[in-house]
Design a protein that fits this description.
The chain is α+β, with helices and mostly antiparallel strands and about 290 residues long. Helices cover about 55% and strands about 10% of the residues. Strands 3-2-1-5-4 form a five-stranded antiparallel beta sheet. The chain has a two-stranded antiparallel sheet with strand order 6-7. Helix 5 crosses helix 6 and helix 8 runs parallel beside helix 10.
């Protein structure tokens, strides 16, 4: 890497390489998203001080904690260093907003990104008011230089970017299109890169010492048990409705309407996580 074309990422058969480090598509974006908060805060404070060689060296060491950024950071002049810090921080703001406010479980990447695009003007306005470092508008058009090469029996797609921000957005969006964009582990709260689109938990360790995936399996089991219990309560309520219909206390149309209310309440209960006791009270109010 050099200051003229500082950021290169190569894609080869489902993997990519950035700064000499190889990983799954999206790993470069994921590494920046999960960077230590203290590191990011210190970089933000150094932003206006990198004209000093000592401060620039300190910033380079901090950026090098993200392994694939090490070479670019060590060779950066003051202008490039400020640009790297700025674009790294702003990428984190935008993509963390996307993942926490717009990315919904079960929705496609396209659905989530459409919501993100709709909210971008509001987010950009808020960033201006909060006096972000410099870049308050996410690049919407990327202009990488792309070439192809063959080596070791595979085709390599080599993408050169003029800025760190463009590389990060490109890598994130490519992973999003594959269904394996970085996401937040519900167990430990860290960002990770899923191997498959249906992977919800990372391979790390939760606060209680269990693997996050073990925590996820336990939660999934508890959720199934809870949903089964809710379903049984709903079935009992529908049974009471059928009994009243058989006794002539409800017409068929009235019974169908009440059973629909019960099913609607069941769907809401499953989504909001209410207890079986609360759900049963809700049903008793209508049946």
């Amino acid at each position: 890497m050099n200051n003229r074309v500082p950021f290169i990422i190569e894609y080869t058969e489902g993997s990519c390489t950035a700064g000499g480090v190889k990983g799954a598509v999206g790993f470069a974006a994921a590494d920046v998203l999960r960077a230590d908060k203290d590191t990011v805060s210190r970089l933000s404070r150094l932003y206006g001080e990198v004209e000093s060689e000592d401060k620039r060296r300190e910033a380079a060491e901090l950026l090098s904690s993200i392994a694939w950024l090490g070479e670019a950071a060590r060779s950066a002049d003051a202008r490039l260093m400020r640009s790297m810090i700025d674009e790294m921080i702003c990428f984190r703001v935008y993509m963390r907003y996307f993942l926490t406010k717009c990315r919904q479980e079960g929705e496609s990447g396209a659905q989530s990104f459409s919501l993100f695009e709709a909210k971008l003007p509001e987010l950009e306005s808020a960033l201006r008011k909060e006096n972000m470092i410099a870049r308050t508008v996410m690049p919407k058009e990327l202009s990488p230089k792309i070439r192809f090469a063959a080596s070791e029996g595979a085709i390599r797609e080599i993408c050169e970017f003029s800025s760190l921000g463009e590389l990060l957005i490109f890598d994130f969006m490519r992973a999003l299109s594959l269904g394996t964009a970085p996401r937040i582990c519900p167990s430990c709260g860290r960002y990770f890169l899923p191997e498959r689109s249906n992977r919800l938990y990372c391979g790390g360790v939760a606060d209680d010492g269990r693997l996050c995936r073990e925590v996820g399996a336990g939660r999934a089991h508890s959720e199934r048990v809870r949903n089964d219990s809710l379903g049984k309560v709903c079935a009992a309520a529908c049974g009471r409705i059928n009994t009243r219909k058989c006794r002539g206390k409800l017409t068929a149309q009235e019974a169908d309407a009440l059973k629909k209310q019960c099913r609607d309440l069941l769907s809401a209960a499953q989504q909001t996580g209410v207890s079986c006791e609360t759900f049963e009270q809700q049903l008793r109010a209508i049946v």
